[in-house]
Structures are given as C-alpha cells and as structure tokens.
TrEMBL record:
<protein>
    <submittedName>
        <fullName>PTS IIA-like nitrogen-regulatory protein PtsN</fullName>
    </submittedName>
</protein>
<dbReference type="InterPro" id="IPR006320">
    <property type="entry name" value="PTS_Nitro_regul"/>
</dbReference>
<dbReference type="Pfam" id="PF00359">
    <property type="entry name" value="PTS_EIIA_2"/>
</dbReference>
<dbReference type="InterPro" id="IPR016152">
    <property type="entry name" value="PTrfase/Anion_transptr"/>
</dbReference>
<dbReference type="InterPro" id="IPR051541">
    <property type="entry name" value="PTS_SugarTrans_NitroReg"/>
</dbReference>
<dbReference type="GO" id="GO:0008982">
    <property type="term" value="F:protein-N(PI)-phosphohistidine-sugar phosphotransferase activity"/>
</dbReference>
<dbReference type="GO" id="GO:0030295">
    <property type="term" value="F:protein kinase activator activity"/>
</dbReference>
<feature type="domain" description="PTS EIIA type-2">
    <location>
        <begin position="6"/>
        <end position="149"/>
    </location>
</feature>
<dbReference type="InterPro" id="IPR002178">
    <property type="entry name" value="PTS_EIIA_type-2_dom"/>
</dbReference>
<dbReference type="GO" id="GO:0009401">
    <property type="term" value="P:phosphoenolpyruvate-dependent sugar phosphotransferase system"/>
</dbReference>
C-alpha cells in the first residue's frame, strides 16, 4: 500500500467542491478538519496560507499539493479535493488547478513530510491517475484509485 491511502478516509475526499479562490478552499478544508478533530479552522487556514506565501504549491497539469505543519498534530493526514471549476493557483504552467491533495504534518515531521510530498508528486505525474480522479463518481471511487496506485 502507498502512504497516501493511509492519510485519507472517505470523509476527507471532497468532490466537485465550489471555491473561487485558494483562501475560500482552505477555509472549507479548515471547517472539515475542525469538525473531525480539535484543530481550529484558523490554524488550518494560517498554516496553508503561510506556505503559499513562500511560493505556490501548484505543480502544473491542473494539480496542487498545499501543505502545512500543525503544532500538536499527532500524525500526518490529508484531504483530497476535486474542484467543480478549476481555480488560479500560480502554477508554473499557468493552468488553473482542479485536483488537490492537501497535506498536514506534525510540526516536527521533516523527513515524513518530504517523503509524502515526493510520493504525491509521483502520484500526480500519472495522466491515467489524474484522468481517473477527474472522472470518479464518488469519494469511494476516488479513494479506491488512490489505494490501488502503486509507487
């Protein structure tokens, strides 16, 4: 099994999300994580926006990997998002983003953080995977695509 599947659950796969900006999307993810854990919406938003200020996490090809470190988080976790309409993300190819894997790691998890980001980049480099995620009809289908992917 790949590391990505262990970071997700069906409740953390959001399909056809309506968001007009990075900030609006990050606020929605903050609401989700706050509902599932004791992490505040503001902590999630601040973490993601701080990372974006360092440089866009847009990879190109309609994909982004926003990520942040959260003080007090016990283990890495993720949220997969497919947007209904792509949004501007300052990606190197200037294409708007539709597929995102938003990663959260404990504040001290440097090696783990880098390993997961590397695996995510490999995952999203597959056109077959990207196309399948764009066509998946349910969170369960999207999670199956992620679980069945082999690095």
């Amino acid at each position: 099994m790949n590391q990505l599947a262990s970071l997700l659950s069906v409740t953390r796969i959001l399909l056809d999300v309506e968001a007009e900006s990075k900030k609006q999307l990050f606020e929605q993810v903050g609401q989700l994580l706050h509902a599932e854990s004791c992490i505040s919406e503001k902590t999630v938003l601040d973490s993601l926006l701080a990372r974006e200020k360092l440089g866009s996490t847009g990879l190109g090809l309609g994909v982004a990997m926003p990520h942040g470190r959260i003080k007090g988080l016990k283990s890495a976790s993720g949220v997969f998002v497919r947007l209904r309409n792509p949004i501007e993300f300052d990606a190197p190819d200037h294409l708007p983003v539709r597929l995102l894997f938003i990663l959260f790691v404990p504040a001290q998890a440097t090696d783990l953080h880098l390993e997961i980001l590397s695996e995510l980049a490999q995952f999203f480099s597959s056109k077959t995977v990207r196309d399948a995620l764009c066509l998946s009809e349910s969170a369960e289908d999207a999670l199956a695509i992620i679980r069945n992917w082999t690095p």
